Amino acid sequence: MTTSTITKVLPSHLQEPIIPSARGVSQEYGTVRRNPLAMESSVAAASVDNLNQLLADTLTLGSLYKKHHWQASGPHFYSIHLLFDKHYEEQEALADILAERIQTLGGVSIAMAHDVAETSMIPRCPKGREDTETQVKRLLQAHEVILLEARAMAREAAEHGDLGTNDIIVSNLIRLNELQVWFVVEHIQ
Ligand SMILES: [Fe+2]
After folding, report:
1. Ligand 1 centre from 186 Cα, in Å?
2. pLDDT at position 1 over 70
3. Assigned superfamily of 39-185
4. Ligand 1: distance of its center to the CA of 66 in Å?
5. How far is the CA of 83 from the centre of ligand 1 (A)?
6. Which of 36, 64, 78, 86 has a 20 to 30 A CA-CA distance from 5?
7. Domain coordinates of the chain in residue numbers?
8. Residue 64: per-residue pLDDT
């Protein structure tokens, strides 16, 4: 295997993290500000917690689709290549809806890849290229992880009176994931 000869050692000033100014972190991750939404803080906090889990898993599923879009192969290469990218874009749009709901509720949305990787419930996949059947099975497993947790979270949000979060989980997340499962699973039926 050929390895890059470009040095991966950064100059010292680029290795050090930026030290936040006094006002650097205006709100810690995991905290919830009270916004005037006629909603108990504890209800908003529970929804933020659940939505951040869904956001981490949605971003991970989106990355999985992009990986499989780039690394597609086989006799149906072109259609699968395009389908996986369409689903990636739809998951990215969903992630934006989830993140902005978290901010609306007064929370802090998870965002960076390393934090997302630590939080996601979706099993890690190899760096290497996989055949289409394995790609499909991996995507279906990720969808099912999300659907399983999402249905429980939607019920919890409704029971606590957070109907806006319930609506987003049901109307945006569950319906999109179920539809994408159909388009993917038909490749191995
Ligand atoms: Fe592309």
Report:
1. 22
2. no
3. Ferritin, core subunit, four-helix bundle (1.20.1260.10)
4. 8
5. 11
6. 64
7. 39-185
8. 98
Closest CA to 180 of 78, 58, 77: 58
Ligand 1 center–CA 95 separation, angstroms: 19
pTM: predicted TM-score of the whole model, two decimal places: 0.93
**pLDDT tens by residue, 98-147:** 999 999 999 999 999 999 999 999 999 999 999 999 999 999 999 999 99
Ligand 1 mean position, distance from CA 181 (Å): 21
Distances (CA, A) of 86 to 55, 65, 143, 180: 18, 9, 15, 10
- The tokens for 116 are 């997302």
